[in-house]
Amino acid sequence: MGSRRRTALLTGTGLMLSVATLAGCGSGASSPTNNSTSNTTSVNAGTPVDGGTITMGMTVAPKGDFNPIYYEDLYTAYVLGMAFDTLVQQNGDTSLRAGLANSWELSADKKTITFHLRKDAKWQDGQPVTADDVAFTYNSIAQKDYAGPRFNVVSNIVGSSEVKAGKATTMSGIKVIDPYTISITTKRANPAEINTLNFYIIPKHIFEKIPVSQWPNAVQSTTNIIGDGPYQITKIVPGQSFELTANPTYWGGKPHIQKVVWKVVDASVAPGLLQNGELDVLYGVSPKDVDSVKSNGKDAIYEAPAFGYSYIGFKLNEKKLQNLQLRQAMMYAIDRKGIVAGLLKGHGTVINAPFAPTSWAAAPASDLNPYPYDPTKSAQMLDAAGYKKGADGWRTQPDGTPLSITLDYSSGSPVLDQEAPIVTKQLQAVGIHAILNPPHDFNTLVTNMEKDKVDMWFLGWSLATDPDPEAIWLSTAKFNFEHYVNPQSDQLIQDGISLQAFDQAYRKEVYVKWQELLNHDVPMIYLYSANNIYAYNTRIQGIDPTPVAFSNYHYQNWWIPKDKQ
Amino acid sequence: MTNYLVRRILFMIPMLFLMSAIVFLMAHAAPGDPLQGLLDPTIKPEFFAEMRHRLGLDQPLYIQYWYWLQRMIEGNFGYSMRYGTAVSTMIAQRIGNTVELYLVSHVIALLIGLPIGIWVARRPQSKLDYGVTGASFLGLSTPSFFWGLILIYIFAIKLGWLPAVGTVSTTGYAGIGDRIQHLILPAFTLAIIDIATYMRFMRSSTLETLRMDFVRTARAKGLKEGAVMFRHVLRNAIMPIVTLLGLNLGSVLSGAIITETMFSWPGLGQLGFNAVLDRDYPVIMAVNLMAACAIMVGNLLADATYAWVDPRIRYD
Question: Which candidate in A11, A79, A195, A476 is best for mutational testing of the B interface (most B CBs within 10 A)?
Fold first, then answer.
């Protein structure tokens, strides 16, 4: 065959991406809570008028699976949350208010919850939302063939295990009393149960004929989506944009803004798009962009600490990390305030226990050791604990053997890229031989964490709004990557979901004690809770954001004055 | 020639098998699996084991590969392990975007790169030549995301002439004009490096050809300069470009990842990259197969066109 000239060419093959994956920040408990209700306080003056279109931006593309019981990612939830309602809604302080359920009551043994549904809620095809839909939703999640991750929603309902095992098709604990009343009996009374059960309800008449395993690919989940929320999903351009149209029959009132378009935009161009008016709302503004967005003359910023925190974990099964003085000294060695001020530009809160600072059960600051940045004190503590400096300048373990600790982090986060080297330097400054490994992709980092192949690692948790820390901190929990085993902590965690804990004051007391315990034990370096930051064009009126949800489930109240539509 | 082409095409089949086996092994060699990244404490631990079983991830690798191969031969790409969506649907939604972006950016690159290359080759060592060569170095050495940001800043944000993200407007008129408006910035961003490449290749190959004896002969026999250039010089000088075009077809995915991400242009590059991060094996396999096909077809086309452009080359 003929000769062929080959030349090495320059082509753009470098993978220098700034794809902020959800996973990159450590996704977490995301019990979805959504939608809208009465007791509205219109923040802005003037009488709302109908009409107009707004464009809302998100910086990561949703995965495009709009089935409420299958979806996984936060970005899909942005869209789903406008189209589907839940039984109850959360106020800004995480207390509950009416949603699809007007009211609810607990039985004397606290095991049975009876929900009374509102009678004016309708699916977007005109059918009423009834107790059958609620029962159908929960029973579907319990099915053997359901391949989504939400079994936790129903796992405490009587009969869920039987349905999961294929021995029954419906849970015996769910009783439809009349079309608008449903009672749910749980195996074990749990004060967090309503939060756990609170989930998007799906229409029975749409899904009952399709096997549950096929839902993710059904047109009912991908193109013809019938919800019951204030907006109906009317057009999907996969990976790119999602158009929703006002649902005139919405029980909370017909939304004023006629059309909402969610657009996927790269984080690097988003501030510019706010400035030129192409975006009206942006979820997930980066801290470094806040000042420029604020001063662009068009937009306002809303921010609130996220329900979650960033941390550096310790592998406590690793003998060298079992020394409490060492871990506490490390807390003093790291300038956490400086990191929040410098890297987050102040848009975050330093934490001193593994708890959301906005939670109603958060311990008062005075109860916790604040571990202020104090390298001198840190060095003294290490000296006192027997970590003497060796000939090479690094501290040895109390028994004289060398000590070196590796730190791992994941690529893709501009904040972590700076934070990890800073923390490493600060640990080295007090004589700890800290070694920062090059970043791995998130999946690799998690694999190494699960296999205990790391000493310390940077990660974050997003939390549900209910404060129960069981899933992360119980000694036996899968997500207890630190292997923090402490019977006292386990007992407090159990107390926090005991029958007595239905008394919220008692429950808070338990969680404060637990936070004090973990504040002392330092199973991880507590870093900060970064703010969720939202930008919105000031032409939009009627926005009343809360730390729980920017929309406060009140999308139908947003409006745009005629002259700005 | 026909024989040769048939042989080449038949040869692609074992190549694809080999490639698929290697990609399969490499994809599985990376730590983690599609469920590893799901760090959601509300998820019951049993879910992970159950899903791994359901997805067949608990089977030995060769069995997993065998299952994949069986489905593949039936023309079934399988389902995304992360999202349950049919891989064929995911690809169908995006392949058009990638091909469109790639073709348009290449047409731009050729229309700009080749004429400039020829033009400066006629004036070697001139100020113009130095200027253009310098500019092409800048084009080659500056990463495409940088050009992308600059173009977005100027044309989308400051001037507001062109949209910065997406393939179509979601509101208002969404016809062909709208589509073209959305294409301009990403296509130019992707084209910049290719413009520089084609320009440089065309320049040096034209220069080389201009020094050939047959060109001197053509001139000596009194042909007009235009005829010399078009009938003699360019016909020969274009050959490396043909090869280059074929080879570039293979880079369609790798080149597009950054541009697609920056312009929120949902294409195969974005899909493949996210699949790698998610360890979504069926998607990784499918996207890699498409890339492998693109490379092989590109090479084949290059060879075939080579023979067509240059009658001296015979395949038998």
Answer: A11
